[in-house]
Design goal:
The protein has 13 helices and 25 strands. It has 460 residues and is an alpha+beta fold. Strand 14 and strand 15 form a beta hairpin. Bound molecules: glycyl-adenosine-5'-phosphate.
């Protein structure tokens, strides 16, 4: 886990921004919060949805060899016997005989309680799955579990997907959704919580080709983060040692990110071999094999699993986007979020609250919001409004002034460079669409002008 302090983004500052601006709140805050559970506020929910959409687009929509799935959270209890979660998904814990706090054995420095120094018990295994009951009677026969990973929903639907889509190997099934783990040690904001979301791929391949697909997915997944704004130098691959490998894995490598508390796992990529399909076939009594048309033989595919955390991805994107820049006597705080991820794409800002200007600006706002998540703001000075949008990562502001009423032109101001350009309203939507898609900024007509906020005119 954490080995080195990043020093780049201060977690306290990030948490404070998230709370102040409505990205992320502690769960049930008015009751004092619920340990390690978090609520995504108005901006957080947009950011999180954008992360998931970017993943779905890259993994499902833009590929021929992938399909999606949304399996239920509650599953037949036998699933967890077959998967090994009932037996193996546990941490050894000791309990302090004086203060009764429980600790993972790897948290102990010596054989005493890290909190009060008291004597601790022998370790006992503690299962991380949340238990509940199906139906009104709370008895052992009705126990079900909240899924600790989304992956099992994919394995048990392998044959359904194969029969209904006629996919041939290699192909994958992707799923995102909630997972629950009664983690012993939580913390570092949304890095490790008890309720979180995963984005998982189970990629089915012919045995003998697993190694090359493993390498392929490592590269593919690393590029996904980089293309969305994660700095290359803040990512590393960390292969698991033999001792670390989970019971189902033949090989595994983490994609680590340099979080403020140090290097830690962002996503895990595993070669699960045929473990899951063999286990579920055994426990369900159903065949989960695949007819290889080339050899006319039934085979059990191997599985490559790139398994990412939505919340950890959100945290990584926020960490790498956060910046503080000197701005005259003050500090400009901004989030350099990739336009695909930014919660608000465009802010519409009339220079004054005069009725005719407000009405004009609201018409532009209504037009733009049909295309994107757009915010309208007419309170306080324009400088303050720009800063507010910088702080939440809005890539573009559209400013409407009195001249706009006369010449039907508005100003677009870009978040990162603070460059501004004036252009006809008729070209506004098309220009914003191009800029949000990452096209070259502000290609000017001859004689056109770019200027910096607060001066510095330049001409091309
Ligand atoms: N199906 C394989 C699997 O679940 P994992 O390494 O236990 O593997 C995959 O989890 C990803 O899920 C992790 O890389 C992490 O991003 C996320 N994750 C796991 N536990 C988490 C927790 N308690 N809080 C937030 N994210 C978590």
């Amino acid at each position: 886990m954490a080995e080195q302090t990043s020093g780049q983004t201060n977690m306290e500052k990030l948490v404070s921004l998230c709370q102040r601006r409505g990205f992320i709140f502690p769960s049930s805050e008015i009751y004092g919060g619920l340990s390690s559970c978090w609520d995504y506020g108005p901006l957080g929910v947009e950011l999180k949805q954008n992360v998931k959409q970017a993943w779905w687009r890259a993994i499902v929509r833009e590929r021929d060899d992938m399909v999606g799935l949304d399996a239920s959270i509650l599953m037949h209890p036998k699933v967890w016997e077959a998967s090994g979660h009932l037996e193996g998904f546990s941490d050894p814990l000791v309990e302090c005989k004086s203060c009764h706090l429980r600790w993972r054995t790897d948290e102990l420095k010596d054989n005493s309680c890290p909190s009060c120094g008291g004597e601790v018990t022998e370790p006992h295994l503690f299962n991380l799955m949340f238990k509940t009951f199906m139906g009104p009677i709370e008895e052992e026969a009705n126990v079900v579990y909240l899924r600790p990973e989304t992956a099992q929903g994919i394995f048990v639907n392998f044959q359904n997907v194969l029969n209904t889509t006629r996919k041939r190997l290699p192909f994958g099934i992707a799923q995102m959704g909630k997972a629950f783990r009664n983690e012993i040690t939580t913390g570092n904001f949304i890095f490790r919580s008890r309720e979180f979301e995963q984005m998982e791929i189970e990629y089915f391949v012919k045995p003998g080709t697993a190694e090359e697909w493993f390498d392929y997915w490592l590269e593919e997944r690393r590029n996904w983060y980089v293309n969305l704004g994660i700095k290359k130098e803040n990512l590393r691959l960390r292969p698991h040692t033999e001792e670390e490998l989970a019971h189902y894995a033949r090989k595994c490598s983490d994609i680590d990110f340099l979080f403020p508390m140090g290097w830690a796992e962002l996503e895990g990529i595993a070669n699960r071999g045929d473990f899951d399909l063999v286990q579920h076939a055994k426990y369900s009594g159903k065949s989960l094999s695949y007819l290889d048309e080339e050899t006319n033989e039934h085979i059990v595919p191997y599985i490559i699993e790139p398994s990412a955390g939505v919340d950890r991805s959100v945290l990584a994107f926020l960490c790498d986007a956060y910046a503080e820049e000197p701005d005259k006597e003050e500090i400009r705080v901004l989030l350099h979020l990739h336009p695909d991820l930014a919660p608000i794409k465009v802010a519409v800002l009339p220079l004054s609250k005069r009725e005719n200007l407000v009405q004009f600006a609201k018409e532009i706002y209504a037009d733009l919001r049909a295309c994107w998540m757009v915010q309208y703001d007419d309170t306080q000075s324009i400088g303050r409004r720009y800063r507010r949008q910088d702080e939440i990562g809005t890539p573009f502001c559209v400013t409407i002034d009195f001249q706009s009423l006369e010449d039907n032109q508005v100003t677009i101001r870009e978040r990162d460079s603070m460059n501004q350009i004036r252009l006809p309203i008729a070209e506004l939507k098309e220009t914003l669409a191009a800029k949000l898609a990452g096209e070259e900024l502000f290609v000017l007509p001859p004689g056109g002008q770019i200027w910096k906020e607060g001066g510095n005119e330049s001409q091309n």
